Each structure stands twice: as C-alpha cells, then as structure tokens.
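Changelog-adjacent note: as of this version, every example in the card shows the full chain rather than a window. The one below runs 121 residues end to end.
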Amino acid sequence: MDAVRRHVEANAPFGAHVVFTPGESGNAFLTDTSSKAASVAMWALGEAWGVPAVETGIGGSIPFIADLTELYPDVQILVTGVEDPDSRAHSANESLHLADFRNAIVAEALMLARWNAEGLA
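Full-length structure tokens:
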C-alpha cells in the first residue's frame, strides 16, 4: 500500500493535489493447475474451442477467492471468464463475442458432465 501511495503521489499531474486514503487489501489467489479438476477444465476448453487450451496468470487479485480457499480448504476452486481482445472487461462499452459465449457454455457443460462422471462434482 505504501508503494502505491508513493507512486500516486510522485506521478500526480502538474497542479493536482493528491489525497491518498489506503483501502482494504486482500490476499492473492493461486489455483493448483495440476489438479484433476483443472485438467478436466483444460480438456473441456480445448474441446469447445477446437484448439488446446492455454493457462494465463490473471485474476490473482480477486480477494474473495482467497477467502473461499480459507473457508473451504479441501475444495478445488477454478475461476473462469469469457473475454476476447475486444471485450473491454469492466469498462465502458464492455462486450462479448457471441461465438466465444457459445464456446464457453459448451465448455461449462462438458466440464460439469465429466466432473459428474468422474465423481468430482
């Protein structure tokens, strides 16, 4: 928080007066991508899109996910989202390509069906 405060104060536009009020911070989250549940998710995503799925390291700052891992330590938590380069997530004019949404629905159905068949659900 101190590093953020120093950065904001040091980079304020000319003439701007900065008042920095520290807010709440949360713990980072890192999922176990080697788990059986994650393997099924990667398989389902690959099936739905027709190309092998890849892992990306994003979303680790979603504080409530870390809270869930504390409350349910034996549960595998996977966080997924549907975005394309033009989605502009969490901004004005946020959008979603309908074909990507369709693929995400197919992947979700495949994941749930396989997790159920393998006793993971």
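Structural remarks: Residues 9 and 17 are 9 Å apart (CA to CA).
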